[in-house]
Specification:
The protein is mainly β. Helices cover 13% and strands 40% of the residues. Strands 4-5-6-7-13-12-11-10 form an eight-stranded antiparallel β-sheet, covered by helices on one side. Strands 3-2-1-8-9 form a five-stranded mixed β-sheet.
Length: 142
């Protein structure tokens, strides 16, 4: 089980961490992909993707699709948009931006926390967390 901590990252791998820290905490990724912006480490068993900025080589974004993934101590995967919205409102006063994409997609975005909740067919399928601009990393770097 992996828990996203808004503005921080995940246990032992915080935003701003190096690939060395991720490697020491999570082991070798199952696959490494590259885009113009990111080096993406995929961990299939826990449905986790880590996005390292290609220029800084630091962790900038995390995506989770794991059934047991948690945020605010709650397992939300496959929950309805209404259920997720209630949990968000119980845990933060931050504004929720709702984006209705062409059916069956929906997104809840909380920019101030760097969070995006992706829904397909009225079920949560992905939680994305990003480092916020001007955010200071709490973790050390190797």
């Amino acid at each position: 089980m992996v828990e996203i901590k808004p503005r921080i990252g995940i246990k032992n791998v915080e935003f701003g961490s190096t690939t060395k820290i991720a490697l020491s905490q999570l082991g070798n990724p199952d696959e490494v992909k590259a885009t113009d912006e990111y080096e993406i480490w995929e961990y299939y068993e826990i449905s986790l993707s880590l996005f390292f900025n290609v220029e800084s080589k630091l962790l900038n974004k995390i995506e989770l699709e794991e059934v047991e993934a948690q945020i605010w101590g709650e397992q939300l995967m496959f929950s309805t948009p209404e259920s997720v919205k209630k949990i968000i409102e119980l845990n933060t006063k931050e504004k929720i931006e709702i984006i209705n994409k062409p059916a069956p997609c929906l997104m809840y975005i909380i920019k101030s926390l760097g969070l995006v909740f992706y829904f397909e067919s009225k079920k949560l399928v992905n939680i994305s967390a990003e480092k916020i601009e001007n955010q200071i990393s709490l973790g050390g770097q190797l």
